[in-house]
Amino acid sequence: MFKNKLNGMGVALITPFKEDESVDYAALRSLVDFQISNGTDYLVVLGTTAETPTLTETEKEKIVETIVAQNDGRIPIILGIGGNNTRAVIEKIQNTDFTNIDAILSVAPYYNKPSQEGLYQHYKAIAQSTTMPIILYNVPGRSGVNITAQTTLRLAHEFENIVAIKEASGNFVQIDEIIKNKPTNFMVISGDDGITFPLITLGAVGVISVIGNAFPKEFSRMVRLATRGDLSGARQIHYRFTELIELLFVDGNPAGVKSMLSVMGMINNKLRLPLVPTTITTHEKINQVLTQLQQLK
Asked: What backbone torsions phi and psi does residue 79 show, to the nearest 5 degrees?
């Protein structure tokens, strides 16, 4: 059943770069294995955290091929395909080989700030262009426009292949309204690590995580405990990571998580412009908190 594929913790994979800023495919393969062996439930490929706007089309294709091959069918894969040109998004979808891909994550159109009717028509056109399951992605802090609960519910009720929303608005009232009035099989997924625990208590099925890149075992356990109703156990892990999650986004995403992974010796601390690494101060704070977490184990 497709619904079960989105339960738990998905991880929005970073794109590791070598010192010359070329894609580090060996490190990418290692990251995939690290995720799978530590309890990640599904992988999200070519999302915001992957620095996708800075990748060439050739690199994107090779990244997907690399992850699909390394995963070898072990866990579901969600592919990011979105944009602010509806025709271009549809053309990309129609020209993509979805072998071993389980769903599409499509971000709200950014920069041109469509109305709610424009958002509805955008996703309607996408839904009608494919039989692939579609996950809406609401992230007004990046896109400049919020997909309201009314628009989300309209899409959820009218299109069977619009199966979920990754909600990163941080608006609890809005998210609660979606959970309350959604179709039975429509899923709400947290798009923000820091509020995943409370959102699960409201009825979210899990999270598409950034911190899971570095701590898949611990954060996936928190999600599983929360979804099983062990709120006390989940809360303990939630509070353990509160400070680290805040540090992840001080200098932007994925600068924080790349800093963290570099401290852990898993990747080079390299990003592509216009993104740059965290400040030395943030990097040192991340190192300190990581050391404290290691001592708690």
From this structure: -110, 130
Closest C-alpha among 64, 14, 59 to residue 266: 14
* Residue type at position 191: G
Catalytic residue among 5, 60, 166, 270: 166
- Per-residue confidence (pLDDT) for residue 4, from 0 to 100: 76
Axis crossing angle, helix 25-37 with helix 57-71, rounded to the nearest 10? 40
In whole angstroms, give the CA distance from residue 251 to residue 37.
Answer: 29
All domains in the chain, ordered by first residue: 2-228 (3.20.20.70)
Catalytic residue among 42, 123, 137, 285: 137
Cα atoms found within 13 Å of the Cα of residue 107, Cβ hemisphere only: 29
Provide the residue type at 47 as one letter: G
Cβ-proximal residues to 65 (8 Å cutoff; 6+ apart), any chain: none
Residue 33, token pair as written in the block: 């294995």
Tokens describing residue 134: 């579609």
More confident residue, 5 or 95: 95
CA 261 remoteness from chain centre: 17
In angstroms, rounded to a whole number, what is the distance separating the alpha carbons of residues 49 and 52?
Answer: 8
Q: What is the pLDDT of residues 124-137, one digit of tens each?
A: 999 999 999 999 99
Specify the DSSP class assigned to residue 122: H
Tokens of 186: 């429509």
The tokens describing 44, both together, are 């999200």
Judge whether residue 266 has pLDDT over 80: yes
Determine contact, residues 96/57, Cβ cutoff 8 Å: no
Distance CA(105)–CA(101), nearest Å, equals 11
Whole-prediction pTM = 0.96
- Under 8 Å CB-to-CB from 57, ≥6 apart: which residues? none
Report residue 79 CA to chain centroid gap.
10
Q: Is 166 a catalytic residue?
A: yes
